[in-house]
Amino acid sequence: MMAKQSKILKNTSVRIGLVALILLLCMAVFAPWLYTIEPTAMDPSSANLLPGVTAEFSDLSGDTFDHLFPMGTDSLGRDTWSRVAYGARISLTVGLCVAVLSLIGGTLCGVAAGYFRRLDNALMRVMDSLMAIPGILFAITLMALWRPTVATVVIAITIPEIPRVARLVRSIVLTIREEPYVEAAVSLATSTINILWRHILPNAIAPLLVQGTYVCASAILVEAILSFLGVGLPPEIPTWGNIMADGRTQFNQFPQTVLFPGFFLAITVLAVNILGDGLRDTLDPKFNKRTG
To answer: Mind listing the UniProt keywords for this protein, alphabetically (predicted)?
Structure first.
């Protein structure tokens, strides 16, 4: 186990992805201590300031103080850096929650379909039906029906991702189920739970970790799209998507309001994808043989 962990950490892509994600996570967690102010605080007299400007700012309580705006302000006088830093919390939370929930749901469906032949046809037809609907359209529909909260955004993005994980797990289970050691366990009257837990699921961990990184990156991007279109979280909750949506009307005069959150969104998605590529290169022996 230790040797495998060392091999993973030696991969350059894994290290780059982990470092970038750790820095982004620190920005999200420690946002209140990173020279930020309340992200919803606005001061019209400080509207549309350029990056790096220091100006007087009146907060919600009426106190006035000098503050450096490293990323400038938006049209309502809100600190862009504060909104971007707090927006990282939403993006990372949604990405991680969607990845975990979709892996759990997809694994349960995939194992049931791959190991229990009677359930295969019915479950896969349900998964195929969900995959036939574009994920963005499905999420927009659910968000229109439910009250916009972080939980509803997570659920709306998770449901379209479950079939993709389920099909991956099903293919793995169908292959492993025919292996001699599984057939031997069945002939020895080993319980189904033990077979699944000891022989099948351990072989699915590596592909699931890789798939989880891609699901996380996709979820972060979809959440930003939903917020940008105005069907995600409400405007009072800062997310990278609605920050860009607020600034798009003045993009020609003040592009920083769109460029800064867009930059962090791109870096986050890229870091997660790089991490996934590194895990795939390290954990997938078939891929190593093809590229070796």
So the answer is: Cell membrane, Membrane, Transmembrane, Transmembrane helix, Transport
Among all chains, which residue has been given the structure tokens 């229990």? 116
* Distance from the Cα of residue 175 to its chain's centroid: 29
SS3 assignment, position 67: strand
| In the predicted structure, residue 1 carries a pLDDT above the cut 70 | no
Residue with tokens 């969607």: 98
Amino acid at 257: T
CATH classification for the domain delimited by 32-284, as one of 1.10.10.10, 3.60.10.10, 1.10.3720.10, 3.30.1220.10: 1.10.3720.10
Torsion of CA 252, 254, 256, 258, to 10 degrees: -60
Give the length of the chain.
292
Cβ atoms 149, 211 nearer than 8 A: no
Element (H, E) at 189: none
The mean pLDDT of the chain is 86
Q: Where are the domains of the chain?
A: 32-284
- Largest Cα–Cα distance in the chain? 78
Which of left, alpha, beta for 188 (phi over 0: left; psi -120 to 50: alpha)?
A: alpha
Helix extents (H) in 230-255: 240-247
Condensed to tens digits (0 to 9), the pLDDT of residues 49-85 reads: 888 888 888 876 667 878 888 998 888 888 999 999 9
Q: What are the pLDDT digits (tens) for 240-257?
A: 999 999 888 888 888 888
52, two tokens: 């790096």
